[in-house]
Records
---
Amino acid sequence: MTALSYLVIIFGYLALLLFIFGIIYRAWRWNRLPQGFSWGLFPKPTRWVVTSMLWKILAWPTLFKADRLLWAGALFFHLGLLVLFAGHLGSFIDIASLGERIGIPSESSYVIGITAGTIVAITILFYISRRLFIRRSSEISVFADHFWLWVLLVVVLVGIYSRVFHEVSSDAVRDFALSVVAFNPALPPQNFWFLMHVLLSEFFIIYAVIGKPIHLVGQLFTQYILVSEEGS
Amino acid sequence: MKTDTENQADSQAKAVEEYEKTLERWFGEATKEDVQKVIDKLGEWEKLPYSKLVKLNLDLCSNCGACADECHIYKTLPRKEFNPVYRVKLLRSVYQKYFTWVGKVFGRFAGARKLDKELLKEWFVRFYQCNMCRRCNIFCPFGVDNMAIVRTGRLLINDVMGKTTEDMGRGVRYHLRDGNASEMSEAAFRNIVSFWEDEIKEVKGWDVKVPIDVVGAEMFLIPPNTDYFHSLETMEGIAATLYAANVSWTMSSKIFDSVNYGTFFNDEAWASIITQHIEEAKRLKCKTLVVGECGHATKSLMFLGPSLLGEFPFEVKNILQVTADLIQHDRIKLNKEANPETVTYHDPCNVTRMCGIMEEPRIILRAACMDFREMTPNRDRNYCCGGGGGVVLETASHDFRMEVTGKLKAEQMQRTGAKIVVTSCANCKVEISHLIDQYKLDMKWAGVHDMVLNALEL
Ligand code: HEM
Ligand code: SF4
Ligand code: SF4
């Protein structure tokens, strides 16, 4: 178990470093390239451009037109991820009491977490089956596309499993996480499933910088063609 | 006995196969050195003045396939090779193999692929099958622009091996030599212009004189060469409009062709041709360079030009913007009753998706026609006519265009029930005229200014 603990700590630092500097590096690389044509945007008032961009980034209106099923699946997937992300902040700060203040009883954290995890797991299965059974998607998918979906699925399932059957107290997790950020790592809670969950997520975080999830950052640099309201 | 559907599938397959064979023949064979040079050049892509576009497109696609059904080609014939993502992955996978460490380490598992002679040949075939219409782009959740990659691929092959498709390559050679793509002499140009003048006299009774080489005129008009032969009424309509509104304008006896096929595959030829346009506009000291009913030239002069060569000392407009403006300022009078038939409008990709010129043609057509009807989808979401990306320029692509790339457009036009399909791009006009013949559609085609010519009153 201690070998696993050390792996968790080492990869934890690696993931943290790569995540922060990797994202900055990639954004810097994209940003310094010459933009060339600026033909993406119609001559429209800036306010229209800004709101359309936000709308396009947050609600994916054109994906809605192109592939409604993927739009719905991806929306649930990302909302689920967002909730999980918020929940995981609890590893660093005391969000339970924060939640109580805005009216979410701390007992519901369990239900919220498991529900969000389940939604994410189901939508990953949806992603995988798209890549297996929908032709326009399967014929262009490569090994890596499938591989990382499976990794994420395992991360989520192990997370759910450890929470349901081998729960670690949130105080113990927070003590460990804070010791890591303070560059004075303590031994993590000795719980195999918990440690596996953390280790696998660290791999996924590293992947996130070089792989698809970077689309969160990358799309801010693309030249969206903003779609007119009049067109149909 | 075969059913209709089976027959149709057969003729589609045949058309595709034949055009692919032709493309392969045009490409010939690559050597090992060619392959290496393409890789080296790909390594220098950062020097391209629009490399941000290329890089993000190479980095961001998630292979989700959502764009595939938005491509009229894949929608018509859902073959793997026509999937927009399959096409651009031909290049993306090579980029990953040589220039990303993930691709270097994980190779095929990460989708990376070595470039060899066969793959390079496939680049040529697939990249020249794309209409570069960018419809897939607007539906991608991350704004990935497959057209930018297709163009980069064409560019690499052309830079290294000098290869492109036949008629387009010839057009560029002529253009660099003569200042126009169709071997037209100054005498021929003057002849055609006086023919327009005679025609206007005949239908309108007006003594229009087309100003030529007038230094200091406000507007300098460059129409596409195709309109000199294929769409005379468009040119007469433009001349009559500018005459009726008493605009100060001119044409040039040297530089009278807006087309620029370099737009589709080569930066250097493209820049030389556009420089001809710019220099002539400077010589004539015009305030506004007005592009005729030509899609790729509008894109080229409005957006690519200033971004690659620096700002011009004059403004660039499309003739649709000029005429719509004249209508809105009551400077011309139109009588709708001259155009009683039902009219629909095909939005050319380059005019619409690239330049955002969407409402102007509608302002004009609503003012000039009794019954204007939209086709769906329309404006920036419209389907390409099937001739985009220079595909229509090839005589050899005819069956491929009729059976595959233009089929959806033919169906879309027919559904409107209109008697006239109007459009504002010379290449679209050629493609649409072929489609009307091929599918025996009960309709005519016309340019926007053909309708204006009918309706114009003094
Ligand atoms: C505003 C930000 C974001 C937008 C607009 C967005 C949009 C999308 C869309 C439309 C898809 C479906 C396309 C596909 O199947 O590939 C997708 C997939 C995905 N997204 Fe995001 N996303 C965002 C942020 C994130 C973040 C922060 C993560 C971090 C974990 C992430 C991870 C993923 C993953 C793993 C997939 C699945 C890819 C696959 O199908 O293999 N996304 N995203
Ligand atoms: S640019 Fe147009 S023709 Fe090319 S893949 Fe995209 S939608 Fe299809
Ligand atoms: S280009 Fe965009 S829509 Fe098409 S597969 Fe890639 S990410 Fe999906």
Note: Residues B 61-67, 85, 140, 142, 144, 146 surround iron/sulfur cluster (ligand 3) (CB under 6 Å).
---
Amino acid sequence: MSEQELDARGLLCPIPVIRTQDRIEQMQTGDILKVFCTDPGVIHDIPAWCRINGHEVLSIDEEDDQVVVMVKV
Amino acid sequence: MSPEIIRDLGHRNSINQWYYYQTFTVISSMNTSVENKSRKAVALVSGGLDSMLAVKVIQDQGIHVEGINFFTGFCVEGHTHAIRKKDRARPKRNNALWTAEQLGIKLHIIDVSEPYKDVVINPKHGYGANLNPCLDCKGFMVQRAYAWMQEHDFDFLITGEVMGQRPMSQRKDTMPVVSRESGAGDLLLRPLCAKLLPETKPEREGWVNRDELLDFSGRNRKPQMALAASYGIEDYAQPAGGCCFLTDASYSSKLADLWQARGEKTYEIDDIVMLKVGRHLRPRDNFKIIIAREEGETNFLKGYRKRFLSLGTTSHTGPIALIDGEPSETDLELAARLVARFSSGRDADSVTVEVLQKDGTSSTLDVQPLPSNEVPQDWYV
Ligand code: SF4
């Protein structure tokens, strides 16, 4: 089980979702992905994508202008 | 009551149409063939009602459907919401993701923004009313979806197209062009108007029952709305002109201006995002000024200060502005007066404007805000 990070700062939706999707495709079930974003749209879009594709959102943290989403593959 | 009788009733008059749709669902699921459990279709999902209905109709026939959605850079989704603060009050949703969730299907979002440039720049079939290359665009998307379908071992492809609904890509004579040029041929099925088109392989092979497909045509959306109601779908996106910014006249004129100023038809993703932000004015051929309209846009444009020369008022509150092009000293003063005009100091005798170079060095200019009668309408791109 590995934990990876993805820098999607400065990217506008849906690009952070696409990057998350493409990265998760390379990961194993049980792995954790931490996505760093600046577009607040990810607060809705990443969880929606995860619900559809059967992944779990462990947490969403908003700090300053940054959103950090933790996904369990 | 047999399916034939119900279909007859449905076609006889519009009152019965509602009943037909209601019953349609029940009959369709009765006819679900066990053999179809293994058939798989990939659907082009835009987030609008039509693609949603097309998926429903095919799902009802026991087919496993997954969605595909293409990010071209011009999608109405996303960008402006992230930029404009006032839009943030509305709960944001990505309609394609939302649609997929309602349908209970997987959605694969694919970034095609690079290869899509060629579609926008050199459309073989030309543009529609604005810079929308709809026919080439449809062909491109179907072609990509067809490649995905083959790679992932799916059997056929569906779209929510309705014959005669869109002037360019959804006409009786252009729909076969998309099938042919995309390479998808008769593996491309349009469930909402299949009965008006030649039989496709999924119908011929009995993977889907043609009798249960539809014959929607024209711009009247009542049949779609009735079908939606029969499925209990009440909430759906209603795109006005089209699914992307290229159908928007004001957006298209900004893109045309960008190409004209550069002397060639090229763009980067940053360029086309920028066309969605702020007021764009071109006071002289050699430069354009992009002025933020509100705080969200100001914050967004600030992120581009290393790529563009930028201006901002310091003596008064006001927006940030970026300069695209090569302004002379006199041009810069004009730009500063223009920025001052959009600041809270518009009626002041003098406003101080900071000019920030791309390398971070800055200088200031004290200028008189430009009066409104000195801002000709044709400066607005
Ligand atoms: S409206 Fe835009 S996305 Fe839709 S078919 Fe036309 S060019 Fe393509």
Note: Residues 189 and 312 of chain B are 54 Å apart (CA to CA).
